[in-house]
Amino acid sequence: MSQAVIKSLFAQRSRDFLRDVLSRYTDEGPKAPDILLVVKTTHLGVVLPDYLKEEYPEAIHLVFGGYSENLMLGDAGFDVTLSFGDGYEDLSIPFDAIEGLVCQEEGFALQLPSLTDDDDEDAAAGAPDADADADAEAGLDDENGNAGEGASDAAEAAPGDNVVTLDAFRRK
Question: pTM of the prediction?
Answer without folding.
Answer: 0.62
